[in-house]
């Protein structure tokens, strides 16, 4: 369970960092990629365990590949 929590927190941090580097707010990213702000926030804080399809959708919204998003996590 600890490894899963660590992975979810690392993934969330990677998503947030990438989004912020692109200068996109949480609100704007959520709206443009058909997420709720609260749902995306839970993913970014590691409080949610997203499906692989959701991670792929987030990666596409960030204009990076799925593998790039999860690499070395």
From TrEMBL:
According to its record, what are the GO cellular component terms? cytosol
| Entry-linked Gene3D superfamilies | lambda repressor-like DNA-binding domains (1.10.260.40)
Pfam name, any one = HTH_3
Instruction: Cite the HTH cro/C1-type domain residue spans from the record.
Output: 15-69
Fetch the CDD domains from UniProt: HTH_XRE
Molecular function GO labels: DNA binding; DNA-binding transcription factor activity
| Keywords assigned by UniProt, alphabetized | DNA-binding
Query: Which InterPro entries does the record cross-reference, listed alphabetically?
Result: Cro/C1-type_HTH, Lambda_DNA-bd_dom_sf, TransReg_Diox_bact_type
* Protein name (database record): Transcriptional regulator XRE family
């Amino acid at each position: 369970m600890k490894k899963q929590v660590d992975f979810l927190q690392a993934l969330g941090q990677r998503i947030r960092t990438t989004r912020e580097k692109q200068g996109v707010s949480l609100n704007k990213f959520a709206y443009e990629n058909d997420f709720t702000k609260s749902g995306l926030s839970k993913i970014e804080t590691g409080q949610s365990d997203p499906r692989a399809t959701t991670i792929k959708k987030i990666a596409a919204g960030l204009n990076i590949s799925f593998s790039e998003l999860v690499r070395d996590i």
